[in-house]
Amino acid sequence: MNKEMIIAGLKARPVRTAVSILAVALEVVLILVVVGLTTGITTETAKRTAGVGAEVTVQPPNSSMFLALTNNTMPVALADEIRKLPDVQAVAPVQVLMNSQDGIEIVYGIDPVTFDAVTGGFSWHQGSLFKSPKEIVVDDLWAKAKSAKVGDTVELLNEKFNVAGIVEHGKGARIFTSMEGTGALTGQVNKVGVFFVKLKNPDQAKAAIAQLNQLLPGYTLRDVREFETLMTSTNIPGLGAFIQAVVVVALCIGVLVIFLSMYTTITERTREIGILRSLGASKAFIVGLIFQEATFVCILGVVFGILASFLTEKVLMAAFPTLQVQITVDWMLKAAVFALLSGIIGSLYPSLKAAKQDPVEALAYE
């Protein structure tokens, strides 16, 4: 009987029902897309760094975990000293630049021979390696996002570059040029921001870091495997607080919408509630009826919200190929719980108000 009453009540006011469902769906979309963006970007950044193939990174003292913020202050000649360590197989010195003309992009200035020794080489889609400081190699996602082809001229760091080749993504940066090219832009010749160190035995990272600490005391050394686990919202300063703020805002939206919807329902159905009370319906029955209706609206909102989130993910990744969105099962469950919680909180006062109505007054209500 309750099911029929709930469905009949929702059908009787289709516009209000639709708006309530869409608002709950918006709450779910807001949580999943924002969290998906932050998770996707951090996870993809970690995977690209690990994709270089090194087990250890060496950066200047007190460097950030974000390579884009690294200062190019280390002499490139340090690579020769690092190679002498017994556990080291190859070292790739890299100049790191951040291009902020059109979003934030990392540019690697590399020595192709040493970079290939660590990475195993690029997987080529088109073109070839740069042959001059004014040429760049880009990955396939960057090329797709910018509609760039081999031979095109693009602007980076307020300079014109020709696209020499397009490679498979996943080797650290999305844009590569020679160290001569990046050095000319920064004026920092023979200075680098990071050394990617490949070991003879990948499982000996701790031992290699101990050796590097003796060779380069004070420098920032990171185990790349641990770096991947560190790139989460709980370890990145401010990101966890940002996600919590988004969840709170989304929860407030859900609570307010359900509250207004249920409060309006109580007002419009005063006579119906009076009839139910006069027929012997208890206060608990009325409260339960309102809660069930709010829960039903929230469940529909959750379903539509999850579907809309996956649609938004596909649209964003199609429009911005370098943008990564990662919607996870645990956050889908969390979003569903938050939506249902907003329904419970939002319908609490209206349900109690409905239960307190006097049957005689309710029947006389016009």
Question: Descriptors for this entry?
Answer:
two-stranded antiparallel sheet, 2 domains, elongated, alpha+beta, single chain, 366 residues, 12 strands, ten-stranded mixed sheet
User: Counting H and I runs of at least 4 residues, what is the number of helices?
Assistant: 13
Mean pLDDT: 83
Cα-atom Rg, whole angstroms?
29 Å
Percent strand equals 15-25%
Largest sheet: 10 strands, mixed
Give the low-confidence spans. none
Number of individual domains: 2
Which outline best applies? elongated
- Structural class, please? alpha+beta
In helices, the fraction of residues equals 55-70%
- Helix/strand order: HHEEHEEHEEHEEEHEEHEHHHHHH
How far apart lie the N and C ends?
26 Å
Q: Count the beta strands.
A: 12
Can you describe what's shown?
There is one protein chain. The chain is of the alpha+beta class. It folds into two domains: 2-44 and 238-364, no CATH class; 61-218, no CATH class. 56% of the residues lie in helices and 17% in strands. The chain contains 13 helices and twelve strands. It has helices at 2-12, 14-50, 78-83, 112-119, 140-146, 179-186, 205-215, 224-230, 239-268, 270-278, 283-319, 329-355, 359-364; strands spanning 56-59, 74-75, 88-99, 105-110, 124-127, 135-139, 153-156, 159-167, 175-178, 191-192, 194-199, 220-223. Strands 1, 3, 4, 5, 6, 7, 8, 9, 11 and 12 form a ten-stranded mixed beta sheet that branches. It is elongated. The relative contact order is 0.19. The model has no long low-confidence stretch (mean pLDDT 83).
